[in-house]
Amino acid sequence: AVKYQWSDNGDIKSEGIYAERMTGMHALFAAIVQMPDIGGQPNPFPVHHGWTWLVRIINMPPWAISPLLVQTFLSVAGPTMLGVYGRQMDKLISVLATTWIASVVNLSPLTVAGKSNLTTFFDEYRSLGNIRKCKGHVIKTC
Question: For residue 138, is it left (φ>0), alpha (ψ between -120 and 50) or beta?
Answer without folding.
Answer: beta
